[in-house]
Amino acid sequence: MKRTNPWAWIPSLYLAEGIPYVAVVTISVIMYKNLGMSNTHIAFYTSWLYLPWVIKPFWSPFVDLLKTKRWWIVSMQLLIGAGLAGIAFCIPTSFYIQATLAFFWLVAFSSATHDIAADGFYMLGLDSSEQAFYVGIRSTFYRIATIFGQGVLVFFAGYLEKTTKNIPFAWSITFFVIAGLFIAFYVYHRFRLPHPDSDKPNPNITAQSILREFGETFKTFFTKKQAAAAIFFMLTYRLAESQLLKLIQPFLLDPHEKGGLGLSTQELGIVYGTVGVLGLTIGGIIGGIVAARGGLKKWLWPMMLSMLLTCVTFVYLAFAMPDNLIVINLCVLIEQFGYGFGFTAYMLYLMYYSEGQHKTAHYAICTGFMALGMMLPGMVAGWIQEQIGYQNFFLWVMGCSIVPIIAASLLKIDSNYGRTKKKEEIEELNDEV
């Protein structure tokens, strides 16, 4: 293998992995809200964009079968850039909803495929000691991508909205900037990614063997002990959060007469791109540390109940309607901390259920159920909010927290699981968070 310093490609690779996900899941919601789409349609259409991550396990083996991981990475980055440019071109048109959603789908599928290839390439391009050393680096740059997407890009779009007084133009320029960034990623990685000797199509894998392996993998997954309780837990643990996430930005952006807090797009970028990411990161790190000391069984309930913080803070904001940006930032910090801390238990349980034969494939199926649990409730969240208003909606979401409590009570977990996690495993967990 022609040696390339990992610092020359790991930071940029994980920036390229994080930005399109943020664009599809978060920035799309803010853009459609500012373009005048109703909350019902925003929640429904953008929730569908989770689908590529739901079904990702079904096509991940073909990334091993066809071409190299390196080829998939650079090809998907070029395709993501083209999809983002397509969004930018279509925003000012009269048919922008249909056209931009089509390109968002392209970006979503390309991003999910890029995730598969990038995470596989990480293991091929580094030896085991380097993998342990750089896992924190890749986690850091993925978080930087989140800050850049939710913070810098949203703030930039808000600045253009304010200065040009032309909202479609502002978002079109913003997506052109992201598209240009991905063309730059493509060119850079085309020449700077290493060429690991082991990065080649597996000649022993055939379509027939993949189908046979699929059948065995799914059979063993659904015949594990407590399979029904586990799947119920996977689908419902984020029931409240999945609805909340689709309406947080619309709530913060809507004017007071519509029940919102009336923040500008620039203020929203500051709140969620800085304070929000800080709370999420701290919550995830603390969650990983305490879980490693006490184990999953001990911390499952405290972590799950901490997810209630995500609901309580927005119930307060909806009823108090504060104008003070410091108060709003503090509430978002608490909300994101609760989410980061509580999400740790969820990821640990997915690892716990995946233990045994076909561990990697079973974990991929678990993450598919996780994405499905985000997608389905999110689709109807906007309609519910428009029927009952923001205040009652946040109360409804808080009431939904009862369902994962019921699901958790059905689980049986080894009291020692997670207690002896090594430092690098905790860092990998934080990366997932």
- Order of H and E elements: HHHHHHHHHHHHHHHHHH
Q: Please give the domain count.
A: 2
Second-tier CATH architecture of the largest domain: Up-down Bundle
Helix content: over 70%
User: Which value, in Å, is the CA radius of gyration?
Assistant: 21 Å
CATH H-level superfamily of the largest domain: MFS general substrate transporter like domains
Shape: globular
Q: Biggest sheet, in brief? A: none
- Taking pLDDT < 50 over at least 5 consecutive residues as the criterion, the unreliable ranges are none
Helix count, per DSSP? 18
Number of strands: 0
Looking at the structure, the CATH topology of the largest domain is Growth Hormone, Chain: A
Distance between the termini: 32 Å
Mean pLDDT reading: 85
Structural class of the helices, strands and pairings?
mainly alpha
Which strand-content bin applies to the residues? under 5%
The CATH class of the largest domain, by name, is Mainly Alpha
What can you see in these coordinates?
α12 runs antiparallel to α18. It is globular, with a radius of gyration of 21 Å. The chain has two domains: 1-205, Growth Hormone, Chain: A (Up-down Bundle), CATH 1.20.1250; 208-433, MFS general substrate transporter like domains (Growth Hormone, Chain: A), CATH 1.20.1250. It has 433 residues and is mainly alpha-helical. It has 18 helices and no strands.
